[in-house]
C-alpha cells in the first residue's frame, strides 16, 4: 500500500510517521534509525548543547542514512537557537521543527535556506497563528501527550479534527498515539501524519537506560499517578507566572525562575518537580515489548494495512 500523504510529499519520506524530539537524548543514532526505516527522524539541538556538537551529529546522521531527517529547535528553552539554526542551514538539513514558543523569525530564515518549516503547538489557536506566520505544517499535541503543557490543551480526538477544519496546511497528530489503530484514527480525523515520542522511547536504538525502557513496558495507563500527571494541565497560577516572567527578563534568568516555579507546590499541595515534567504519555498503553525502530514502524504500517482490509471500511468500497 502506498502511504502517500501531504506530509510524505512535503518531507520526502516513505511513511507519515515522525519521531518526536527529545530534550536529553534526541541524537543521530536514534533519529537516523527512524529515517532509515521510512519515517522522519529528528535530531534535537538542545540535546547536543553546542553548535559544533550539533554539526558533528548531523554529519554522523549522514553516515547512517541517506534519507531525510530534521532538526528541532525548542524556542526559549535552549541557549543558542540562532547559532543552532545556522548550523542546520550550513549542513543543508531539509527540515526544521520548532516548538515551545513563537518561531516565525526562525521559520523565515529556514525558508530562505530552502528548508521545510514545521511548528509544534498544543492548541488550535496557536496552530492557526503558526499557519499565518508561514509554517509549512503543524504538529499539534493533544492532552494525552507529554512535554510542555498548556492549560488550554484538549484531548487528541478533539484537537485534531478541529485543527483540520480550521487550517489549510497539513496537520500532524501527536498525543497518546502508539499503534496502528491510533495511526489510522489520526489520518481519519484529518491529519496527514502522526508524531510519536513515547512509543519510540521503548526501542532498542533509543539511548536511554534499559531499566527506563522496561518501565515503559510495565507502565499502566490506568495507574492514577501516571494518568493524572499526564492529563492534568499546568496549575493556572504557575503557568501565568511563567508567561509573565518570560516577557520581563533575559533568557537565562527566566530559565532559573522557571525551574523555581515548577518546583513549587501545585494547587493540590503536591510538589511538581522538573524531573516529572515529561512523564511519558498515555501511549504507554500500547507498549508491551522493546523492539527495534524498524520493527515498530513496520509493525504499525503492516497492522494498519490489515485493519483496512479486514475492517468495516472495506464494505464501503
Name the poorly predicted regions. 261-279
Quick one: overall form? globular
Using only CA atoms, what is the Rg? Answer: 19 Å
Mean pLDDT: 86
For this structure, the quaternary state is single chain
- Helix and strand element order: HEHEHHEHEHEHEHEHEHHHHHH
Topology (elements, then pairings):
Layout: H1 6-11, E1 17-19, H2 28-36, E2 41-44, H3 45-48, H4 51-64, E3 69-74, H5 81-90, E4 95-99, H6 104-112, E5 116-121, H7 124-132, E6 137-141, H8 156-166, E7 171-174, H9 180-188, E8 193-196, H10 198-201, H11 210-218, H12 224-231, H13 236-246, H14 251-262, H15 293-310
Helix pairs in contact: 2-4, 4-5, 9-15, 13-14
Explain this structure.
It is a single chain. α4 packs parallel to α5 (about 80-90), α9 (about 180-190) packs across α15 (about 295-310) and α13 (about 235-245) packs antiparallel against α14 (about 250-260). This protein has helices at about 5-10, 30-35, 45-50, 50-65, 80-90, 105-110, 125-130, 155-165, 180-190, 200, 210-220, 225-230, 235-245, 250-260, 295-310, and strands spanning about 15-20, 40-45, 70-75, 95-100, 115-120, 135-140, 170-175, 195. Mean pLDDT is about 85; it is low at about 260-280. β5 (about 115-120), α7 (about 125-130) and β6 (about 135-140) form a beta-alpha-beta unit. It has 15 helices and eight strands. With about 325 residues, the protein is α/β, with parallel strands linked by helices. The protein has two domains: about 5-220 and about 280-315, Alpha-Beta Barrel (TIM Barrel), CATH 3.20.20; about 225-275, no CATH class. It has an eight-stranded parallel β-sheet. The radius of gyration is 19 Å and the shape is globular.
